[in-house]
Amino acid sequence: MNVQSVVTVADAAEDPVTDAPGVLPRPLRLLRAALDQRGIRYCHWKSNIRLARALTGMEDVDLLVHREDAVAFQAALAEAGFRRTGSRAGLGHPGVFHAVALDEASGGLIHLHAYLQIVGGDSLVKSYRLPVEPMLLTGCRRLHGWPVPTPEAELAVFVLRVALKHADPVEAVMANRGYGATVEELAWLRDQADEARAIDLFAGLVPGAGAELFGRLVEAIGDRRALLQRMRLGVHLAWTMRGLRRLGRIAELRSRLHRVAAALERRISGRRDLVLETGGTIVALVGPKATGKSTLGDGIAESLSGQLDVIRIHAGKPPATLLSAAPRMLLPLARRMFPGDRPSAYDSMEKRRGRGHSLLYVLRMTLLAHDRRALLQRSRRAAAAGAIVVSDRYPSATEGAIDSSCFDAATIAACGSPLKRWLMRQEHRLHATLPRPGLVLRLEAPMETAIRRDAERSKPEGPDAAAVVRRWQLETQAEFPGTPVVRLRTDVPLRDSLRRAVTEVWARL
Prior knowledge:
The chain has 21 helices and 15 strands. The protein is an alpha/beta fold. The protein has a six-stranded mixed beta sheet. Strands 12-13-11-14-15 form a five-stranded parallel beta sheet, sandwiched between helices. The longest helix is centred in the C-terminal third of the chain and has 26 residues, at 359-384. The two termini are 42 Å apart. Mean pLDDT is 89; it is low at 1-22.
């Protein structure tokens, strides 16, 4: 099939079903306009039974783009606000890439799969290079305002893809999870397609294939109970199409093992594989107690982690390290023995910069600084690898402020104990070597609002209005020189503050 036979989007037949007003997210509206304006040859090439869901951001958008239009397509993506992503585990496929865009209205991400060539077969490795692009891009019609292949082309490719997924026992098991959707999609395509034309297209893809093989495949795919038949036909089809394999057996096995190991790592860690090509960052949420740091942090992570690698941390309460694990076990006993030496006794700038720090307090703050550095160094490495790290609280450059170094030079010099002076210097040095965040969201709300929210929270120790007032100065004096700081009012509806927070984070990724 020559290039001239591939129609452009402008030539595609119009389907009477169009977008419902206000449903299509803005990034997709902008993308479609940019693609059509540039005359780019593209279509949404698979799973069009669920295209409406994909266009609302509930599923991935799968666009096939003519290879000659690749450069113009990249420009259209950027114009519409999409950003390319990569796989942190190296799981990409040739000619296929991912991009995401923020839908500011919902606060969620739109996930786009872009195909410059079709690779298929098994679910993980995609062992076959399927030369079906001209077929899919020719004679497109419009569905919900987007170009899609003819029903015959989509049916022929669908049967081929499903059959190849049954050529391997493990892959067959994976393909049959939720198999009802496959049966439903086959019926949907058959209702629309001229089956004789679909058979001709299928025969053009599979050497020696005809109506008999196509019919057996359609019958087996449409019967949920015919797993063994699908597997036998899948093996036969894979052998027939062995000339289209893009990987040899050893390379395929190696790739499959790598992908299985990566999938296990994701399941254990709970992290996503995709990261932005522009890299990750550390986002710090700071501000007085009960201004919504945890709530907004969770909301930001939920908005972005559906597609991207996001890590949640609490820099104010870092996990124990080997050095601090044993001393932390003794904290309950220390609290009972020294009730007047709790950290809350130092909840003022004046107290922290004064004299009379107990050895217990100095030791605890030094170990806390050590644990905090360990957590933030891991976070820095993760961000450098592409992760978006969202942190409750963060140490600042202001000595004496919350989560920052407790001991300035004057305090250290005035201490009469050599041991405490040494510990204070270690605490100060540890804080001086902490990585800076990439963005600080400084949350602000009236003190009355913070006191009310603190009273409404369910906490083991109960509400403590005095603590909110006492810590206010510690939590509002922190400065972050050299780091972008965005002030966010949180005495507004949560939806509004979360939308603003996600938008600010996205703008700096």
